[in-house]
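Example record

The entry below shows one chain as it appears in the dataset: sequence first, then structure tokens.
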Amino acid sequence: MPSLYILYNYVGCHILSAVDLRVGVVGFGWIARLHAAAWVRLGVPLHVYAEPAEHAAAAVAEFGAVAHPTLADLLAAVDVVDVCTPTDTHAPVAVAAARAGRHVICEKPIASTLAEAAEVADACARAGVSLHVGQVVRYFPPYAAAHRVVAAGELGEPAVLRFRRASGLPARPWLRDEVRSGGVIADLMIHDLDQARWFAGEVVRVYARAARPVGATRTQAYAILTHAGGAISHVSASWALDSGFETSFEIAGTRGLVDHDSDATKPLRADRPGLLAGPGGLPPVLGDDPFTLELGEFLTAIRGGPPARVSAADAAAALAITVAAIESADTGRAVTPSPVPAAFHPFTPITATATATAVVRGSWE
């Protein structure tokens, strides 16, 4: 029998029904656990392949997942592959999944470079499968609500935007290795680089600085973005908190201002009465899990429903800004982001060709 489930989110109520899709999560670190919990909430049969083997065993114990001994075995058993491995393995795992004919969901960033990202998009297009990338901050209620205010024109034209995101230094060695993860800019700041573009449009110039107080790891980064429409975004990211996680933003437009601070009592504030009660105002429910909303939206799109609010091209644009910020921080010069590779727009499937499936190995702790 087809499975039925109901997913409520803050852009409306959607009733989704379809035959079960089997999802395979690759990797089982911190982010994969959040994805696994979301898939369980969505009622999706869950499979996992992870190295070392004890990570896969943890997925079985915590979520009742079906563990597979190799990536090839996982690909043979599922319809959708959710890539939750270290950044430098995203592209090869995603390409292997696409070549096996599986829909691809990938954690951000989609890849380490735009060239690798284009390989992923091309592989998905050739196989005729979907490609979705987890820029999950678009699903966090304060950001989504503020975007609705901006999109409704309640603030006028965006003028000056400020975003901040801070956490402690990551424990996992691969995250502190800038060659593997891209460092604090590609792992943390990329969330708000995507937000800046989502709120204020295309970015035409990036100037960034980064500090390196902990060994070879840069733990602080700051970027100034110039948007095509004239808006300016200030974006900061830090791995220097003693504990916890902090986020904030301020969106100033020609007609008003909204701001958010994770430490504040109210999740979103405005500079004039009634601003948040208009057509772009706060949603009625702020407690929905962003990962469940995100993956549910991806699943809806895979099943032929409306497209997700973040496209593969959006993720490629966020990566282009990220790469520009890293280059600027390395050279001290302002950088123009590279265009999104042609493979992303339009993302139209073409005739698939038979290709051997690559098997990717390595420690994904």
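Notes for this example: Residues 1-19, 278-287, 348-365 have pLDDT under 50 and may be disordered. The chain has eleven helices and 15 strands.
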